[in-house]
Write a structure and sequence with these properties.
Number of strands: 14
Strand content: 15-25%
Number of helices: 11
Number of domains: 1
Oligomer: single chain
CATH topology: Beta-lactamase
Largest sheet: 7 strands, antiparallel
Distance between the termini: 63 Å
Radius of gyration: 20 Å
Strand order of the largest sheet: 2-1-14-13-12-11-10
């Protein structure tokens, strides 16, 4: 066996062991919001020391649209409404929308089609459906922790490499649970969904999303993320005071690899919330999840929270140095976009924005 093959095998086994260890050493915690007295959105953001750009609207009327803090602390550039940010896992909603487009085009039969129809060699693929990928109910372990650790140390992983690692892990260790048996968030689901888009369209995922989503919605500031941020319109990302913008974006394929600004994300939310982008049948598939008061469920690539009897559909994103929130309430046509270049390790800032603004403004 060559030295290269031995090295590759060692890397893959390291990641597989990490995936198993990560699952058994981590539990899902309920992240609470911060106990801050609410007066209005602007004062809330000041109290939170928010660093980024926010857009809030209701019934088509803008309530708040402005930047806070600095886009680049090294040069003193301020955040404003044009500033672009990495949106992390908000990217999953773009991948999910691309899969919806596959069904419209007749490339998949329905969301309950097993992934073995597209790759007969994927282990236990006959048990896992497209719906379970998009709703985090597949039981496939998350690849990100181990791959990210090694990628930051200099190893390169293509999406196909990661797909092979995910497959090998399932062969070695099985699924975390029977598909459909529970919900557990896993980036692996959306990397696989992204590769499915490429497989069925013979087009790169980013090109497909650009042609079928971004261009029709005139989202001109949304683009695939780069490893190094050298665009002056794009914010640098910070963890506390440290600039952590350098990131191997290729490992976030399908699950967290886009950048955008608040105006594009507002266009996107308005389209998703409206009546012309999705058909009623598609909306029922994507969004209709039973959620009791004060709780959150997961539809097809979108969360749904029940806040004071209001349905808030949303997704968050976290990637080194950045945190994101997009969401909407159809009842009042309320939209919240909050994109930040300050890492939010606990999620409390995002949860506070959701709770306070949905309750008070929508």
């Amino acid at each position: 066996m060559s030295t290269y093959i031995k090295s590759l095998a060692t890397i893959r086994m390291t990641i597989i062991l990490f995936m198993v260890t990560f699952y058994f050493s981590c539990s899902k915690d309920d992240i609470m919001s911060l106990p801050i007295e609410y007066t209005n959105p602007h004062e809330l953001l000041l109290d939170l020391k928010f660093n980024g750009t926010v857009f809030i609207s209701k019934n088509g009327q803008t309530l708040l649209k402005r930047g806070y803090g600095q886009s680049n602390r090294e040069t003193g550039i301020a955040n404003d409404i044009q500033t672009q940010y990495r949106i992390g896992s908000v990217s999953k909603t773009l991948t999910g929308m691309a899969v919806v487009q596959l069904m419209r085009d007749g490339l998949i039969n329905d969301f309950d089609q097993p992934i073995s129809d597209f790759d007969p060699d994927f282990p236990l693929g006959h048990l896992i459906t497209i719906r379970q990928l998009l709703s985090h109910r597949s039981g496939i372990p998350d690849y990100l922790g181990g791959v990210e650790y090694l990628a930051k140390a200099g190893s390169f992983f293509s999406p196909e490499d990661i797909y092979d690692i995910i497959s090998e892990n399932i062969v070695e260790n099985g699924l975390l649970f029977s598909p459909g048996g529970k919900t557990q968030y896993s980036n692996s689901n959306f990397l696989i969904a992204g590769l499915l888009v490429e497989h069925l369209t013979n087009t790169s995922l980013d090109q497909y999303i650009e042609e079928h989503i971004l261009l029709p919605l005139q989202m001109t500031a949304t683009e695939i993320g780069q490893n190094e941020i050298d665009n002056p319109l794009h914010a640098q990302g910070y963890n506390k005071e440290k600039n952590v913008s350098s990131y191997p974006m290729n490992i976030a394929f399908g699950a967290g690899d886009w950048s955008s600004n608040v105006e594009d994300m507002a266009l996107y939310c308005a389209a998703v919330m409206g009546d012309s982008w999705f058909t009623p049948a598609e909306k029922a598939e994507i969004f209709d999840v039973e959620v009791s008061e004060g709780n959150t469920g997961f539809g097809l690539s979108w969360f749904k929270s029940n806040i004071d009897g209001k349905s808030f559909y949303w997704h968050g994103g976290d990637i080194d140095g950045f945190t994101a929130l997009i969401g909407f309430t159809p009842e009042s046509k309320g939209i919240i976009i909050a994109l930040s270049n300050q890492q939010d390790d606990t999620g409390k800032l995002r949860n506070t924005l959701i709770e306070k603004i949905v309750k008070a403004e929508f």
